[in-house]
Amino acid sequence: MTYLRKLLTIGLVSLLFACTSDFEDINTNPNRTNVGDIKASGLFEPLLYNGINAWQNYTWFWNNELIQFTAFTGGGTRQEHRYFIGDQNWQSVWNTYARYTNNALHMYDLSVAQNDQSLQAVALTLKVLYMSNLTDMFGDVPYSEAFQAREGGTTEPKFDSQKEVYEQMFADLETANSLYAENPVFIKPALDGMYGGNIQQWRKFNNALYLRLLCRVSGRDEMGSATKMTEILNNPSKYPLFESNEDNATVRFSGADPYRSQFANTNENGFTSSGRKLTEQLIKMTVIADDFGNQTYEDPRLAIYGKKNPNYLVNGVNAWKGTIAGCTETEQSAADAGTSWLNAAVFCRAEMPASYMDYAEVQFILAEAALKGSIAGGELAAKQYYENAVTASIEKWAELGQFSETPVEISVENIEAFLASDLASWDNATNKAELIANQKFLSLFWIGMEAYHEYRRTGYPELTIGRGTVFNDYVLPTRFAYPNTTMATNNANAQEALTRMGGENNMKTPVWWSKQAIESGN
């Protein structure tokens, strides 16, 4: 344990030293660890564990607040659900994704020098994972010229268009898939808390990520997403994909220091009850009520996601109640009365696993593609993919039900009942595209920023913007703005990117693949 803790510490120090104001500083930081100083495997473990914990922190801090899974209504210190977001926040998000990309590339360089083909492939997968989030949060970003200063390259990298960024990410995923295909040996499988060194599972994750990104740009015909998805599905030996929850890109924590989840040391008050409450939007999507307001049915995952307010003085009817995302400070007290909480008993465990991507997401992607005619099968195939997806999501969460204060058990019959309910029934849905999008949205609960990305892509679910969201003029942020440091140190390239994106450096300019940008003709 002492040796492994030292590895994580070394890696964390490397990650921290890489955290600077933007791409130029990252690449010229004199404190960074140089290629050859440590083994590639010495970077892998902290990149995996620290990376997924950063991922989890963002889903709690940013994603859930932006798209109304939760709302911090416990005071005025945190107002993300009201879009009180500024340069310090943009800088932090930019730095985080940039530094994890930088360390993935560092690991790639080490693995090439040390002839470790397995980590070459893994490094490319992780590079794309983090760069995709950087571009999806900001729009056009450096890619082709990013992180090159240490080899004597530019310190003012150009901002590639988002189309160009996606094309380069696709190329990196193709290269990684080819490397995985040679079945290289993962030299230290004990370091791999996700797949135990199983290269074929890493390959499935790589190609599942490929599908995610093809889906993201599927509204842009010029990207050829339908053709590539069909090629992937028709060539399972060349492009293996997730086949069940066993393939989920999930990092497992032992619970022993330093292998502990992000919220292991967080109590219920700090995690949720004093601030972050479940919202009425989430309750609306997971609970059925009769004409008299009596709650008659609920999504079986809800009691694992959340917890009813136990105070009978404010919740005497023992109901699920959500606060109002984006409410005004005047509305806040009344909105919070009896409000349900995140389920700290589930999430604040040292062993709580964390996911980068699930099998359910792959099935939802295929359901949407089949319904649109982008892949073969039509509505019949779309229904099967959809029901596979919902089932997989519920089964994933069912494994965690045992950790609730009141354990939750979900049977096959419970899943079948849900698929027949008004919340999830395929046959009863009048708008099946909306049904797929809404259930995909719920399945992405606690998976990075994915629900936020999907909302901007599809426009679903239909969110009500609160009257307190004055800080962005009642507009749900369409992107994060480039940090001031980046605007100051690489202004010409950043300004060119903004001109290309057709807007100002604010949270109202839509990203290129979004529904808003496509419908506006940008």
TrEMBL record:
Signal sequence, renumbered to the chain: 1-23
InterPro entries assigned to the protein according to its UniProt record, in alphabetical order: SusD-like_2, TPR-like_helical_dom_sf
PROSITE patterns cross-referenced by the UniProt entry: PROKAR_LIPOPROTEIN
Swiss-Prot/TrEMBL keywords: Lipoprotein, Signal
Matches recorded under Gene3D superfamilies: 1.25.40.390
Protein name: SusD/RagB family nutrient-binding outer membrane lipoprotein
Organism from which the protein derives: Tamlana crocina
Lineage: Bacteria, Pseudomonadati, Bacteroidota, Flavobacteriia, Flavobacteriales
